[in-house]
Specification:
The chain is of the alpha+beta class and 130 residues long. The protein is 16% helix and 35% strand. The radius of gyration is 17 Å and the shape is elongated.
Length: 130
């Protein structure tokens, strides 16, 4: 499967999704897709956007979606090629007709109390001897 999005170079080369699955946390592409990637001398920036798949239940599956919004979370992940990796995860929320508030998924992206991806936080903790 190929990722067809802004991570193509000027020659139209596409980055295979299997490569991203080696870098990103397991299961990330079940709910997200890569939409942007850039880097500078010190950092690699990647943006993942939650897929437009509302978490509907039997109680609300026949309601109309009247609004969508995003909440961006930036997470520090494992370094890539000596560059700090910053993942911006665009969480999607849905408003359903006749309901108060927004509907979203409860996905655990960060290690509790940090802005670090869980696997990276575990790696750092193991290296510190705790």
């Amino acid at each position: 499967m190929r990722v067809v999005n802004p991570l193509n170079d000027s020659h139209g080369m596409q980055i295979d999704k299997a490569v991203f699955e080696l870098i990103f946390p397991q299961g990330m592409f079940e709910w997200f897709e890569v939409t942007q990637g850039t880097s500078d001398g010190q950092n690699a920036y990647l943006t993942l956007e939650e897929k437009d798949l509302p978490p509907l239940t039997n109680d609300n599956k026949h309601k109309t979606i009247v609004a969508r919004k995003f909440h961006d979370i930036t997470i520090t992940d494992f370094p890539l090629r000596g560059k700090r990796t910053l993942l911006t995860v665009r969480r999607r929320y849905w408003k359903l007709e006749g309901q108060q508030g927004y509907l979203g998924r409860d996905l655990k992206l960060c290690f509790p109390g940090t802005r670090l991806e869980k696997e990276f936080a575990d790696f750092l903790k193991a290296g510190s001897g705790e």
